[in-house]
Specification:
Layout: H1 3-16, H2 19-26, H3 30-44, E1 49-51, E2 56-58, H4 60-85, E3 92-98, H5 100-117, E4 121-127, H6 134-137, E5 141-146, E6 153-167, H7 169-175, E7 189-192, E8 200-205, E9 208-213, E10 216-220, H8 223-231, E11 236-240, H9 241-250, E12 254-255, E13 264-272, H10 279-291
Parallel strand pairs: 3-4, 3-5, 7-10, 7-11
Antiparallel strand pairs: 1-2, 5-13, 6-11, 6-12, 6-13, 8-9
């Protein structure tokens, strides 16, 4: 029995949830997959999997061994990647997670250039605004927009963005322009539901911190929806400058209360805390850092 092959088979079975699906993924027969797992259990002297006609599950011993298999296989893949990288080429699959709007606007245009520079790298990009678990869900890297990165992860700041209060000129003509954050309570507000501050908006103004409880007419977990509602004169929106900055510069939206600053957020590349960073991940981080080095999303939009 080749224990290394058997470990890969076990991981494939757990990932697929069945021997048949694992066999298809590995290009092996179901009998061969079953034999690898059985040989591994015989070698260890323990049962690794509970088998029923409906599902597979790991035994307690199987959970521990499966975790160690993942660690061993990851180290082998990393070692191979490191050796390969010495030739100047990186290869393999890069699984990336990014927020939906930022990923669509500012990352999607970069992928073609990155793949042209590194033809042996395959990208698997998932856009989602929820906070994914990089380790549990198998991502190599995530781009996150936050005040501080998760302390359990390693991060590199790529850029920054300011959260801007704005509305369309037509809305302000109809309803008036607020002169103080307290006046937002009586305005039509479009709220991004994933903001950590919720509907209690806080600003840093001339007199210090100022908070106001807003009453949204529209709530959405998607920044594009909030922006489009503001462009359609539906109310006041609080959104990152990487999204609304071009609209402000073009006059489609007008920044409100510029002397009252909302939060400034860092844009980070984050990746699991490991002693060795795979060359493909390091190359991608360097590429993104260079691509965003000249961005000015943190600066006041004009």
């Amino acid at each position: 029995m080749d224990r290394f092959d058997a470990m890969r088979v076990l991981v494939a079975v757990v990932d697929a949830g069945s021997f048949v699906k694992a066999a298809d993924a590995l290009g092996m027969s179901k009998a061969a997959v079953s034999r690898h797992v059985a040989d591994l259990e015989a070698h260890l002297g323990v049962r690794l999997l509970h088998r029923t006609t409906r599902r597979l599950s790991l035994t307690p011993e199987g959970e521990l061994y499966h975790l160690r298999c993942l660690e061993v296989l990851a180290r082998v893949d990393e070692a191979e990647a490191e050796i390969t990288s010495r030739s100047g080429e990186v290869s393999g699959v890069l699984r990336i997670n990014a927020p939906f709007t930022f990923g669509l606007l500012h990352l999607a245009p970069l992928w073609m250039e990155f793949m042209a520079l590194h033809p042996k790298v395959t990208l698997d990009v998932t856009l989602a605004d929820r906070m994914v678990d990089l380790v549990e869900e198998g991502f190599d890297l995530a781009v996150r927009i936050a005040r501080l990165p998760d302390s359990s992860l390693i991060s590199r700041q790529l850029s920054r963005t300011r959260v801007v209060l704005c509305a369309s000129p037509e809305y302000l003509h109809r309803h008036g322009t607020p002169s103080h954050p307290a006046e937002l309570a009586r305005h039509s507000v479009i709220s991004y539901s994933l903001f950590s501050m919720g509907e209690h908006w806080v600003f840093d103004g001339p007199e210090g911190p100022v908070g106001v409880k807003v009453n949204p007419r529209l709530r959405s977990n998607n920044g594009d929806t909030c922006r489009l509602a503001a462009l359609r004169h539906q109310g006041i929106v609080l959104q990152p400058s990487f999204l609304v900055g071009p609209d402000i510069q073009a006059g489609r939206l007008v920044e409100i209360l510029p002397e009252y600053r909302s939060v400034e957020l860092g844009i980070y590349a984050v990746y699991p805390s490991r002693k060795f960073v795979a060359p493909k991940v390091r190359v991608l981080i360097d590429f993104l850092a260079e691509a965003f080095a000249m961005q000015s999303w943190g600066a006041r939009a004009a």
